[in-house]
Amino acid sequence: MMFKNGNCPCCGKEEWRPFFQGAIRNGAYGSAIKNALVLCCSDCGLIRMDERFCEPPESYINTVYRDSLNQSNSPSGFYTKHDEIQLERLNMFQVNKLRGARVVDIGCAAGSFLDYISGLADSCVAIEPALSYHESLKNKKFELYESLDSAIEKSIQPVTHAFCFSVIEHVKNPLEFLQQIYSLMQEKAQLIISTPNLNDFMIDLSLEYKSFFFRKAHRWYFNNDSIMKLAERAGFKNIEVKCYHRFGISNMINWMQYSEPYKNDKSNLGFDTKFIDIVWQKNLEQSYRGDYLYITMEKYK
């Protein structure tokens, strides 16, 4: 059976076949849509959520999206949960190259990443739809726009470095999204994005994890091949994909034992796993089976 769900952003084809049908996450773990449909492009294999089960765009402007995750909509609440993640992101590129740069962070939320790099960068542009973060971003003197459309409409000065973490899987049209970012960049500028990895080894290991992985808020599911095709189609060059795995082996054991996310009071193996975790994580990263992808690309006409 084939479905019409819009053109594939990677190859342009229109036909989609069923990939998975069942429960998916509806916000925080424990809340589910019971009979959702996940589709696969019949030509290139890109995976997407059937549009009927997707988060509406306005949820990112108001408080609905973070409310569904049981997360705070305040800047301080965002910092508590996300400040530590920025260290992972900073390790994915040469931070020293940001000295004197003009930087944009698309989907910056309360601006944790920009806080870390603003001392090096010459100027920082914040693009964020959620109104609850705007006052804080303005108080930090970041150049603020509510969308890529508004930044393009204002013809802002081209940027030398663009960042977009954990956003592309949410947007309605990822090809158009990358093309818009491209238009904000000057020649030889660099873009770094991140997204969950469809080739996460846990998807093949556990049906429960598959229902945890697929979620209402994520329209698109990329692996290293499909994200490279998308970036190339958007016009980018020198594309490099790095895989990153954020969890130790106890997380996998917990899923196998309890069919749920890792909790500190479970999967106590009775010994320190830090050395095993290093080998475990590096092996998954080298085979592109870790849970996250970081993609670096450059603009050349």
Overall description:
The protein has 301 residues and is an alpha/beta fold. It has a single domain, classed as 3-Layer(aba) Sandwich (Rossmann fold). Helices cover 31% and strands 26% of the residues. It is built from twelve helices and twelve strands. The chain has helices at residues 64-68, 75-82, 85-90, 112-117, 134-139, 148-153, 174-184, 202-205, 207-213, 224-233, 249-258, 274-286, and strands spanning 3-4, 15-25, 32-41, 47-49, 102-106, 123-127, 143-145, 159-165, 185-196, 220-221, 236-244, 292-299. The strands form two sheets. The protein has a seven-stranded mixed beta sheet with strand order 7-6-5-8-9-12-11. Helix 5 links the parallel strand 6 and strand 7. The longest helix is centred in the C-terminal third of the chain and has 13 residues, at 274-286. The model has no long low-confidence stretch (mean pLDDT 94).
Which structural class is indicated by helix and strand composition?
alpha/beta
- Broad CATH class: Alpha Beta
Integer count of domains:
1
Major sheet: size, sense and barrel closure?
7 strands, mixed
In spatial order, strands of the major sheet run 7-6-5-8-9-12-11
Characterize the quaternary organization of these chains.
single chain
In CATH, what is the homologous superfamily?
Vaccinia Virus protein VP39
Shape: globular
Number of distinct helices: 12
Summarize the structure.
The chain is of the alpha/beta class and 301 residues long. The protein has helices at 64-68, 75-82, 85-90, 112-117, 134-139, 148-153, 174-184, 202-205, 207-213, 224-233, 249-258, 274-286; strands at residues 3-4, 15-25, 32-41, 47-49, 102-106, 123-127, 143-145, 159-165, 185-196, 220-221, 236-244, 292-299.
